[in-house]
Fold these 2 entries.
Entry 1:
Amino acid sequence: MFHISDIKKYNRCDRYFYLNQLAPKPYFPFATCNESTLELAKQFLNCTEYYEGKSGDAGELVLAQLDHYDTFVAARFTYQDLRVTIPFLRKQQDGYQVIFTNNQCFPKESEAAYLAIACWVLKQNGIQVNDVKMIHLAADYVREETLDVFKVLMLDDYLYHDKKQTHKTIFEIISEQKLDVDNLLIGMRSALAEYPEGKQRSSVCTHRGKCDYFDRCFNQEEKPDSVYNLVQSGMKYDLVDAGKTELGMLDGDDIEGTRHQYAQIMAARSESGLYFDVFAMRDWVKRRIQYPITYLDFEWETYVYPPYQGMKPYDVLVFQYSMHVENTPGAPLLHEQFIGTGDCRVAFIEDLLAKIPAEGSVMVYNAVGAEMLRLKQLAVQFPQYSERLKAIWERMVDLSLPFSTGNIYDVRMAGAYSLKKLVEIFTDYDYHDLSISHGMEAVANWRSLQADEINDEIREQLYEYCGMDTYSMVLVYHMILDVLKKYE
C-alpha cells in the first residue's frame, strides 16, 4: 500500500521514490518528539468515546463503524492501493469535520496538496467533508512545572506562508487543489516497475542537503572545481548544459557576482588552488582577535515539546561544552569540558561561567546560529545569569565568516565550509577515526547516556567528539596565521 509519505517522495523524484522503496535509509529526526501528539490531541479535544484505528487496518473496518461512533481517531481509509490515516474525524449534522495534526508551530501551505488527497480519499469512501482544521503547537507557549496540553496545542483554521502569515482557511485551500490521484498512482506504480533511467542532476538533488541516494545516482567522481559547486547560483545547471563545467571557465556574465563566487573562480584559476584575501584577513585578525582566545563548542538536543520549565516548543537543551584556551600566541592549550544529563541547564551555565576566561575573544564556528543563540535562550530561561552570559556572547568571534564570505577559499572545499571539511583540507587531522563523527551521532549517544548515566564509554566518546571540534578551530585559526606570516 502507498501512503502520503510515499507520494511526497515520488513528487520529489521518481528515482528517489524507487530507491527508497528498494533500500530505505534510516531516518534520524533533528528534534526528539518526546510526547505522543495523537494522545495529547485526544486530551485537547476531550475525546472520550471514539473508534481508534490501528496500523495496517483495512479500509473496510472503519466504514463498518460509521453508524456506531461520532468520533474516529487515527482511522485508516483506502482507495485502490493508497491508504491514508485521518487523525480525527468527527460527525456533524450534514457531514464530517476533519482535524489533522502537525508537530510544527506554523504548518505550511505546501502541505495543503497532501491534506487534499486525504480528504479526496474520504470522498471516494462516501464521506462528505465540510470542515477542515489543524492541531499544531503554540509557538509562544512557555512550559511551567507541568506540560499544559490546552496551552501547548492550538486548533487552527489556517496554514501558513513562509513568512508565517495566513490568507485562506485550510478548507478553502484544499477545495482549490486540482487533483488527479488516479494518474498519480499510475505513475507511482510505473516508477516501481523498473529503475527510472535518464535522470539529470538538478537543484532537487541537493535541496536542503544532498539526497540520501545522490552518490548512487551520480557515482562519477565530481571534481572539486566543478561548476556544480558554485555557491548561491541559480545558473549553474544552465552553465553545465552550455559546456562550462569548471569554475575556471566562468566570467562575469556567468555569475551573480557575490564575493564567495569570485573567490571560487579565483581559486580555480590559481596554481595553488587557494584564494586568500591577505588584506581582509590581516584586518580581521587585528580588529577581532584578542588573547586569551577561548575556542568554544556546544552540543545540544532539540525537543518538539518543552520537557522542562521555562522552555518553549523546539527549544534546545545544551548538554555539553568543550573549551580550549590559548592564553598567549602559541602557548600550551588548556582544556575544560562538561557533560550533563537530565535538566542540566543550570549546571551547564554555572560550570561554563566558572571556567571561561573573563576577557579575550571567544571563538566559535557559526556563532549566530549556534552557540550565541544557545546562550541567549539560556539567558531568557534563567535571567539571573543573563548579564554574565551576555558578556560571553558579546565577545564571540565567528571563525566560519572568513570562509562563508569568500575571504578564504580552497578548491578542495567544493562549495562547502563546514569545520570538518576545513580541518581535513588544511591539516593532517580528521574525524574519521572517532567513534562519533557528526553532531547527530553525538545527540543519539547522549540519549543513550540518559538511560545509563554511568556509561563511561559513551561519556568519553562524547568528550572526544566535542573536544575535536574546539581543537579543530585551533588548527584552522593557526592555518590562517601561518598564511599571513608568509606575506609579512
Note: The longest helix spans residues 456-485.
Entry 2:
Amino acid sequence: MLAGKMGSVRQRKALKVKQQLQNRVGFDYEVQKLHQDGEINITLSRNRIILFGIAFVCVTIFVQIVISNYLNMHIPTRLKDREASESTFAGFARMDVESAAQLTAEECKAKSEKYLDAAAEFSGAKGEGHKGWLYLLAAYSYLHNHDKIDLDEDIFRNLVSNYLASNYVSLALDEISIVKSSSSYQYGNQATAKVIDQVEKEIKVSHPDLYKQYQERSKMIDVVRSEMAKTLKPPKILLPFSTAVASFNLIEQYDKLHKLNNEFYAAAMVLYKKVESQWKEKQPTITDRELNHKYFQAQMSILRDTGDYWTGFTELSLFNELIDTMREGAVKVLEAYGHSSQVARRKASHDIIFWASVHTGNSIHEPHMTEDSLIGGVYYVSVPEHSGNLELFDPRAKSGVCEDIIEGLTNPPFHRTVTITPKEGLLVLFPGWLVHSVKPSVGLDVNKQKYRISISVNLKGEWQDTTALHLSNYLMSNFYR
C-alpha cells in the first residue's frame, strides 16, 4: 500500500489550511499560537462577534422590511434547511469511484498535493473560506477512493474538524462511516482503523446527543413513514444545461471496418514516417508530442495548398464512409439539442475538417477545444494496449461561480473529469466547446506494437447551437431509442 501521509511538510500544509478555513461559516477567528505538537489554539474575538451580530441583525431586519414591502420577495436564511445543506456538502466530498480508478496512485497523490497547496492560499479572513474548503475537499477526493492509498490522517482530521466547527456533525460521522466500509479499514490496515476509531470516540464525547441522534437516524434510513412519501412515483427528470456526448461502436455495425482500418493505418504511417524523417533531420531532439503537431500541420498544409485532403486518405474507402457516418451521427446529436430533423441535417451538411493523429508512449494532446466547430469528433483506427484515454472536462469549472482559476488546476467542485476508453471502431461526438485531451499512453512500445492512431472529424458551425440541451426522460428515451 502507498502511504497517504507525506510527513512534516504535509502536516504543515494541512495545519495552514486549518488555520485559514476553520469555521468557514463566517466567524472571525484569531490564531493565538501554534503549539510545538502542531495543534492550533484558536479563540473567538468575542467583542467583534457581538458587534457584528448586532449590526447583522439590524441590517437583516431593515433589508427584509424593504424587500418585503417593495419587491414582495423572501430572503431565506443560510441554514434554513439543514438536511438540504448537508446533502449539498456531501456531494463535494467524494470522487466517483470509476473516475478515481482511472488514475494511478501516483497521479492521485500528485493532484491531491496540488489542491492542498491551493487550499492553503485562501484566507478565511478575506472571505475566501468556502473556496479554500472546496479545494481541500478536492485534495481529499483524489485520495479517498483509491484502493492503493491509505487514509491521509492530516486531511481527514482537517475535514472532520471543519465539519464539527460548522456543527455539521452528521457529515463528519458520514465520512467516518464511509471510511469504515472501505477495504483499507476492514482488511487489516491498523493505522487507518486506529485513526478512525479515535476520531469517532472524540465525537462521541464532544457531541453525545448529536452522535446518538445520528446512530438512531442511521437505523431508520430505509423506513418511510409518510403516506405521501410511500406513494411517490418516479420523477420526470430534467437535466438543464446538459452536455450530450455520443458514442457509436461502428465496428459492431459494419463487418468490413477492421479491414478498412488496417488500410488507413498503413496510409497514415506512410505520411507520418515522411514527416518524422524530415523533422528529425532538422531537429533531432524533437519530441513525439511535437512530431504529432507537425503531422497535423503537414495535413493542413496539403489542404490549404490543394483545396483537398492528402490523396493517400481520400483514395481510401474509410475516408468517405467516415465522413458520411459522422454527418449522420451529428444529426442525431443535434436533434437531441432540440433542433428539428430538417435543421439538424442542414447544419450537419457543413464543412468537416478531417485529420489523423499518431501517438506513441511519449506523446499526449493537451486540453483544448475546437473554436470553430459545432460538433467535435474522434474516430479510433488503431488502439494498441496501453493507449491513452480521451478525457472530457466539466465545462462548469470555468463558469461565473468559479472566476478565480489557479493555473494547472480545474476549479472544484467541478474538478472531476469523464474518461472515455478508446477502442478500434469507436466514434465519439461532442460539442465543439467541450474541453478535451488525450491522456499519456504509458507503456505503449511502438517498436513492438502498433501506433495509437485516431481521426479527428470536426463539423464547422456555431457553439451556441449546442448549448440549449435540457434532457428530460422523454428526450433521453428518444435519443437512445
Note: The first strand starts at residue 29 and ends at 34.
